[in-house]
Amino acid sequence: MDFTLTLLGTGTSHGVPMIGCDCPVCHSTDPRDRHLRAAAWVHTDDTSVLIDVGPDLREQVIRQHVMRVDAVFLTHTHADHLHGIDDLRGFTRLCRQALPLYARKHDTDFIRNHFDYIFNDHDFKHGWFIPRIELRDLDGQDLIRVGALPIQPIPLVHGHGHAMGYRIGNVAYLTDCSAIPESSYPLLQGLDAMVIDGLRWTPHYTHLCFEQAIAEAKRLQVPKTYLTHLTHDIAYAENQAKLPPGVFLAYDGLDITGTL
């Protein structure tokens, strides 16, 4: 069975173009140089899952005509991956039921504390005008099934903290990481495609740079690798030509077809 991983956003926490920047990339007319905050949509004809709900969520789901969401999976709680959570009310209002949101327990605790208005409305006095979310803790590396989709959590290192990547069938989505723990490599064998953090050419302490991401692709022997979480240092036309065969710059709206 086939599924599609659509990249809703492929940029850093600033997005591209950046506020107040006059650089050539921020003024580029190439649509591949425009990057909303990082997020993804995994979907089949019958199942629809979001990975991350950043501040550009409303624009992203309208652009891609996302009409239904069955579950949300969070990579981590940084603002560029979480602060669109209120816009999930658009989906819960339509379906009239709570939306499962999966994350590490540390992250579900954070969400419950920082967005308490969502979870303290026990009397339903605000009706469907706030998102109705059911927080679900990811228990280690157990596979989660949502409809037709088997979703495998992949623990990652993100600077001094942690993030979660996800594998669906033969495709992995690994944004916001500075390293892959040794214990996660067995979960990433046999991939046909991988979306991985590749901030820019120069190193960064909380993200993989291009050289590091390409090395991970070689280690895992992935035929197609897409670099995401791109900064405004990276012009598509100029930099795609510098990448080795099988490695591509991601861009918003890119569809990657996978097999379950």
Automatic annotation (TrEMBL):
Keywords: Hydrolase. Pfam families: Lactamase_B_2. The keyword Hydrolase applies. Transmembrane segments: none annotated. The keyword Lyase does not apply. GO terms for molecular function: phosphoribosyl 1,2-cyclic phosphate phosphodiesterase activity. Coiled coil: none annotated. This is Phosphoribosyl 1,2-cyclic phosphate phosphodiesterase. Residues 36-229 form the Metallo-beta-lactamase domain. The lineage of its organism: Bacteria, Pseudomonadati, Lentisphaerota, Oligosphaeria, Oligosphaerales. Its EC number is 3.1.4.55. It is an enzyme of class 3 (hydrolase).
